[in-house]
């Protein structure tokens, strides 16, 4: 890789907010070694070198494989081929070692860097491992003939219990157990790609029978040009990964706000992120909240009912772009009125 690539990797690693003390130490070691090594991405140049691996997530949890030599359940990963970027190596290794059709979490070409770990490797090597998040559909792994055949989906809890300390830290950070692990912040221009890909995955997962009137590229352009820069859009983050999006606007009738968009990336559905975003919307409203959802989206309707929303209006869908029957839901604040936080 070129000097520019090395600088880009160094900057990305330096921006990491470590999930625990082990990652903090690993980041310091990584940056020192990256500066020292003549060819940091070559396994033949020095026993210490950069590697890449993939945290594969999906609606079923996390994918791990049993390493043939080490006998440990690990995330797929390995050495970086000449001319390859670390994130490209992570995708390639994931596909080779699991046979799963994986896609990057943050965008169509480049996954999100979520973890850095320095650890001993085989043959006396030291691996400076860069870890990226990939998403896979709910299909069974199909590793190639030369790969470990012990590849399977694990629940988040089981994956954490099986993992070594270096992997368990990032899995805990990515699997929220309470609202304190989720960070909600205003979306920025740099989030547009992640927000668009999340929106597309969530729609396909939640309402697969509803045909979108827009192409994926149209959606990406709309998110970048309008949703993020022009609307009140918030993102939910876990370990620096965007896992949910919320967009609010003024209610057309009375006080309160409209929830225009509320989408979660499928791997994090049912893990408390949606409730955090709804609570954030409630805190910003001096009255109530309202939203529309498709009648066919039974899971969303159950979720909103648990959050205190009441269904108040049903239509045949003639007024929406998809021409799909929908339902308006309303939440009204009880007791004293609170001003929205600044």
Report on this model:
The model is unreliable at 336-342 (pLDDT under 50). The chain has nine helices and 15 strands. Helix 1 (3-14) runs antiparallel to helix 2, helix 4 runs antiparallel to helix 5 and helix 6 (192-206) crosses helix 7 (216-230). The protein is elongated and about 70 Å long. The strands form two sheets. Strands 1, 2, 3, 4, 5, 6, 7 and 8 form an eight-stranded mixed sheet that branches. A seven-stranded mixed sheet has the order 9-10-11-12-13-15-14, sandwiched between helices. The chain is α+β, with helices and mostly antiparallel strands.
Quick structural summary:
Helices cover 32% and strands 28% of the residues.
Topology of this structure?
Elements: H1 3-14, H2 21-36, E1 48-58, E2 61-66, E3 73-74, E4 77-79, H3 86-98, E5 103-104, E6 112-120, E7 126-135, E8 151-154, H4 156-162, H5 165-174, E9 183-186, H6 192-206, H7 216-230, E10 232-238, E11 241-250, E12 257-264, H8 273-284, E13 288-294, H9 298-306, E14 310-314, E15 326-332
Parallel strand pairs: 1-7, 12-13
Antiparallel strand pairs: 1-2, 1-4, 2-3, 2-8, 5-7, 6-7, 9-10, 10-11, 11-12, 13-15, 14-15
């Amino acid at each position: 890789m070129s000097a520019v690539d090395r600088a880009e990797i160094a900057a990305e690693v330096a921006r990491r907010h470590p999930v625990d003390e082990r990652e903090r130490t690993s980041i310091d070691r990584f940056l020192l070694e990256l500066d020292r090594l003549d060819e940091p991405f070559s396994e033949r140049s020095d026993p210490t070198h950069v590697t890449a691996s993939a945290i594969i997530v999906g609606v079923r949890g996390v994918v791990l494989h049993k390493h043939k030599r080490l006998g440990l359940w690990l995330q797929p990963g390995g050495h970086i081929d000449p001319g390859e970027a670390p994130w490209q190596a992570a995708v390639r290794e994931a596909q080779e070692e699991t046979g799963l059709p994986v896609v990057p979490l943050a965008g169509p070409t480049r996954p999100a860097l979520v973890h850095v770990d320095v650890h001993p490797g085989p043959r006396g090597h030291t691996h400076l491992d860069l870890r990226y998040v990939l998403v896979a559909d709910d299909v069974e792994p199909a590793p190639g003939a030369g790969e470990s055949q012990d590849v399977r989906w694990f629940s988040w809890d089981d994956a954490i219990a099986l993992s070594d300390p270096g992997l368990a830290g990032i899995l805990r950070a990515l699997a929220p157990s309470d609202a304190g692990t989720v960070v909600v912040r205003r979306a920025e221009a740099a989030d547009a790609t992640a927000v668009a890909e999340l929106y597309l995955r969530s729609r396909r997962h939640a309402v697969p029978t509803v045909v979108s009137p827009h192409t994926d590229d149209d959606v990406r352009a709309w998110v970048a040009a309008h949703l993020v820069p022009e609307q009140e859009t918030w993102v939910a983050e876990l370990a620096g990964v965007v896992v949910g999006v919320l967009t609010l606007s003024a209610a057309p009738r009375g006080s309160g706000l409209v929830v225009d968009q509320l989408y979660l990336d499928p791997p994090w559905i049912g893990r408390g992120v949606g409730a955090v975003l709804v609570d954030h919307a409630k805190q910003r409203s001096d009255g109530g909240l309202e939203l529309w959802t498709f009648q066919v989206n039974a899971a969303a309707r159950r979720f909103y009912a648990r959050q205190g929303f009441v269904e108040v209006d049903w239509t045949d869908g003639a007024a929406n772009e998809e021409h799909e029957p929908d339902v308006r839901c309303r939440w009204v604040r009880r007791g004293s009125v609170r001003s929205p936080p600044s």
